[in-house]
Amino acid sequence: MKRLLFSLLLFAAVLPVRAEETLLMVRVNMKAADAMEVLKETIREYGYEVAHVQRCDGGMAEFDYKTDFYRVVFFGKLEEVRGILDAYPEMAPFLPLKIAVIAEEDQTVLASIDPVALSRLYGHSRVLRVQFARWHNDIQAILEEMRDFRKK
């Protein structure tokens, strides 16, 4: 968790841009625990593996941030992540991909760093620019599906 917070702070310090240029975010009309389960399934439907779900409630309480439910879902495609980290080890703080799941009363906020924003740091690599665009499209589509999700 500390490394994630440090990476996000570093990212924010290096890239002084508006939040809407660095974050992908939606609000969904479901309880956070339900949203997280639907999110994990949706991530899998896009061909990614859920690597880990981390609880953040306790650590955030130390900063006087109160929430009923705060998790981060880590996900990626194993071979893709390994290949990128082999070629660009400095990408480690940003991989695997992450989506935060934060409760707000009867709704849930889902947020992720926009991978396209990483182009400001790694724009010299065409391979990474293309990969960032793919991740952006997938995360945006996942979040839109979550926003539009209706129980069957």
Provide a descriptive summary of the structure in words.
With 152 residues, this protein is α+β, with helices and mostly antiparallel strands. The chain has one domain (2-148): 2-Layer Sandwich (TATA-Binding Protein), CATH 3.30.310. Helices cover 45% and strands 23% of the residues. The protein has a five-stranded antiparallel sheet with strand order 1-5-4-3-2. The radius of gyration is 15 Å and the shape is globular. The chain starts with a helix and ends with a helix. Residues 1-10 and 13-17 have low confidence and may be disordered.
What is the strand and helix layout of this fold?
Blueprint: H1 2-14, E1 23-28, H2 32-45, E2 49-55, H3 57-61, E3 70-76, H4 78-87, E4 97-104, E5 107-113, H5 119-122, H6 126-148
Antiparallel strand pairs: 1-5, 2-3, 3-4, 4-5
Helix pairs in contact: 2-6
